[in-house]
Design a protein that fits this description.
The complex is a heterodimer. Chain A is of the alpha/beta class. Helix content of chain A is 37%, strand content 17%. In chain A, the strands form four sheets. A seven-stranded mixed beta sheet of chain A has the order 4-12-11-10-7-5-6, sandwiched between helices. In chain A, strands 1-2-3-14 form a four-stranded mixed beta sheet. In chain A, strands 13-16-15 form a three-stranded antiparallel beta sheet. In chain A, strand 5, helix 5 and strand 6 form a beta-alpha-beta unit. Chain B is mainly α. Chain B has one domain: Non-ribosomal Peptide Synthetase Peptidyl Carrier Protein, Chain A (Orthogonal Bundle), CATH 1.10.1200.10. In chain B, helix 1 packs across helix 4. The chains are: A alpha/beta, B mainly alpha. At the A-B interface, strand 6 and helix 6 of A face helix 2 of B.
Amino acid sequence: MTDAASTANDAHTPAEVPAARDLFSKFDALIAERQALLDTGVRDPFSIVMDEVKSPTLAVIKGKETILLGTYNYMGMTFDPDVIQAGKDALDRFGAGTTGSRVLNGTYQGHREVEEALKEFYGTRHAMVFSTGYQANLGMISTIAGKGDYVILDADSHASIYDGCFLGDAEVIRFRHNNVEDLDKRLGRLPKDAQKLVVLEGVYSMLGDIAPLPAMVAAIRKHPNCMILCDEAHGMGFFGEHGRGVFEEQGVSDDIDFVVGTFSKSVGTVGGFCVSNHPKFEVLRLVCRPYVFTASLPPSVVATAATSIRKLMHAGNKRAHLWENSRILHGGLKALGFTLGSETPQSAIIAVILTDQTQAVAMWQALLELGLYVNMARPPATPAGMYLLRCSLCADHSAEQVQQILAMFEQAGKAVGAIG
Amino acid sequence: MTDRTRIFDIVTEQIEPFNKKGIALGDDTSFAGDLEWDSLTVMDFVAAIEDEFDITITMNMQAEIETIGQLVDAVGRLKG
């Protein structure tokens, strides 16, 4: 019996019943599709294990030293000696975890310190730290947009933004990806006196394209009662003068009411946050359920985050090198004949578009066997049903590594017929 | 021609470009089951209908609309 047909062998779903159904039957199509793919002999792109991690750009996978080009470790902070030391010290002084909510026993001096570091980094009056970036979006959107309010979001928004909408009671409206006219038109149809939250992202993580924020802000400001939340998960660290994100680089800082971000990308650990100048912002600590009803981050994590954020304020050289890597890889892949997610190198993410799942998995596996790890992405995570190999660069990738990466793409691309 | 017939005609006209299997369209035709649309096609189509009638169909409402008839009724309500 295949996995797709079998159900739990217990009193509720006797295995002897032909075509027995239970709550898991809805996943049968996915189980069957995945099994068919694995039966062709390919490795599973969604169950890779890093046996050893040597640096931000190098790991050992099944005994093979592999260049990492599928992490969000943009600024290479995971192995920064100051960051690691801060974590070790906090582990010694404050223990392994807080075992409590931020609003009860889970706020230590370190949680306050990382919020201070964020306020300095963003130049805002308020900062609130969540346990993950996912929870930051979930908490912010579901809490501030309530019954009778509207959330207006880009169709290509991250799952955490959609889930924040589902958790709240607001009316939800989508506009076509990065389409200013579409956004303007949809806002114009809403009741003028209704309160509205427009959710944008600086960098869209699947294709690595950025939002035209000045034009979008101008369109939003034509309509009354709108607040703007901008997710800078993939922009923090290397966009703008202070590395705050795309909104800073494009000069719209004064128009963004809430910036949401994460510690799990450029900062190099885990956690999420929102920064704002809203005078009533602090009340969220009492009413935001994904903030209140979960355990706070371990002391070692907040200590590494605070140290990393402070170092990112002065990381000009690293930023410049990351952008250089992005330009060289984008130009090189394009010259090899690959179809890319954006015409120009817009961020540290470069998406290689493949024709279908078979080709994407074949290419992914060929690269892995050559010693290169990239992310494979498929619908529903991707827009327009695309199969992608997503490359995300690190400031610690050397110029030689970028050339090695291009050579591996050429070899793998020719082997699987993705390029001529 | 009643308002409902007029809306039905405009809606089915908008469906045609996405009606790849060329099935006959009626009130009971479902978007996911009969037309076999994925969520992205639905999103594009809903946006076209919103623009055509100058109305707002929220995602909350979309969850309740499964057939052409339900959509035609919703458009009628929203325009009214």
